[in-house]
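User: Fold this; tokens only.

Assistant: Input:
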Amino acid sequence: QAQAQAQAQAQAQQLQQQVQQQQLQQLQHGFQGGGPSLSASDAASDEPDADTSSASSASNASSPSATSSASATSPASATSVTSPASAASRGAAPDAGTTPPSGARSGARSGGAEGGAAEALEAVVDGMAGRVLLPLLRAGILSRPACAAGCTCSAPLYEAVATTPQHVALARAVAEASTVLLKNEQRALPLRRGAVVALLGRACSAHTPIDPARDAWTAGDYFVVGGTGRVAFRRDPTLASALRARGVTLHVSPTDRISPALRAMRQADVVVACGGATASESEDRPSLRLDQHDFLTQLGLLRTSKPLVVVALAPGAVLTDWATRADAVLLQFLAGQESGEALADVLTGAASPSGRLPVTLPLAEADTIPPCTESVCRYAEGLAAGWRGRVGRPVAFPFGHGLSFTRFAYAWVRPPTV
């Protein structure tokens, strides 16, 4: 019985490979400017009457097993059962001797002009699908899947270590360069050497690694976006971990509660508070507020003379009401596993922030285009979106804004004469 099963499995695999080879040949033929060729029987029956086409269609439809068998055993025979209408729909260029008279077969099959439009649309879709499928067929991916989605993909997706020290260094450099310094009053940053830091908020310290066996595929955090672009990593990406590794003296309050935050503030020289927001593929954020928006606002209201630095981990535009009471503000956009390392380098002055805002930060959510929750949505703003929609109007921080630790001064080499 086992031998019979193995033989049946081998036959099934051989049949699948033959079918995929046939598909590959058809796609390649279509890419070269033609389509599946017309057979001699199709050419002979190329008469301008609907009955012949209908009979051909009925004949093909009445014996699917014969067609599939011919397709599987002989790639060449696959084209012999392809109808002229199918060839036309795939963008074929029929031979001069087999071209049907205008309005003949295509009109009978598809209803004149409407049929022609449908066939043209189908040809476009076939071309788009071919660009995706042809490389897969050429590489043999469809016949040798790396894993079965939902069953055996955990190891290659989440357990394999697919990185190198060079990749880690690149990720850190990119995270540093893309960190945006929104505000730096009284030169609160970089932190002075030996300063005792009160590190406040869950976003500074807490990180629960994404577990694909437990979490939805859309789950994201303050460091990576949820969905198909999500990257799972094992190392701790938090700012707290990175500052500890540099020997910075910390008083940590890892929650978003005010009472323990105030106790930590009393023991420190400078306050660093973090807030974050998450985003995912397939769904909108409920608001533009950070999860710690109220916490950061309260810290600003209760602050003492000690400098307050806010670190925002955001997936896009956010509201920054709390920034008015902060001395310095750093913004980082889902910078991945090196987020904390990059932030620590910037905070301590080992790196100078050079990022610029790729979005406009609005004063209020009403200044943006709200998500539509209806089945029919009307967006009439045209190009007046993003910064274009705020030209000449107040914003919290404009598109392209970003500071650095370097001071610049401008002076005339030779004063101009008027």
